[in-house]
DNA sequence: TAGGACTGGGGTAATTGGGGTG
DNA sequence: CGTGTCCCAATTACCCCAGTCC
């Protein structure tokens, strides 16, 4: 069990949609977008410009 | 793949807003905030510093 | 290619945090 | 000692619409 330890700058991590992150924090999707624009989250971008968030990063902040 | 790491005090739990908790106990939202600051509740924090309370914890204290 | 669902923006109301005070 | 209330600043929610996803 070592998926939460050795990586925080990689790409082989489960990705979450803005709606999923918003539901996890009990917050609006627009709020998740603000967090990303403020640099509080480091999302991966789709080629169309949509954000996808790393599940590891989310579960860390969820505590 | 288990993300919650079999914890019962972490995620995988519905969250409540301060207003919802206040309504459940029939108190002001300021009182709920005092309970949290006094350590009587263990809320999850949004990245903006707002508190979200675990529904399981609230329903427990409601008995 | 068409279509429904979701997202990224922006603007404006509503909620929340914190301190201080009855 | 616990709670309700008033204040202000910050954060968040809800509204729109154009663009993206699948």
From TrEMBL, chains A, B:
InterPro entries linked: BldC-like, DNA-bd_dom_put_sf, EF_Hand_1_Ca_BS, HTH_17, MerR-type_HTH_dom
Domain HTH merR-type intervals: 15-63
Transmembrane feature ranges: none
Pfam families documented for this protein: HTH_17
Gene3D superfamilies hit by this protein: 1.10.1660.10
PROSITE patterns in UniProt: EF_HAND_1, HTH_MERR_2
Domain of life: Bacteria
Protein name per UniProt: BldC family transcriptional regulator
């Amino acid at each position: 069990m070592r998926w939460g330890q050795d990586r925080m700058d990689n790409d082989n991590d489960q990705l979450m949609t803005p709606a999923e992150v918003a539901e996890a924090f009990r917050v609006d999707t627009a709020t998740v977008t603000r967090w990303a624009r403020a640099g509080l989250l480091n999302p991966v971008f789709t080629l169309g410009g949509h954000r996808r968030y790393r599940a590891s990063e989310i579960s860390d902040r969820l505590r």
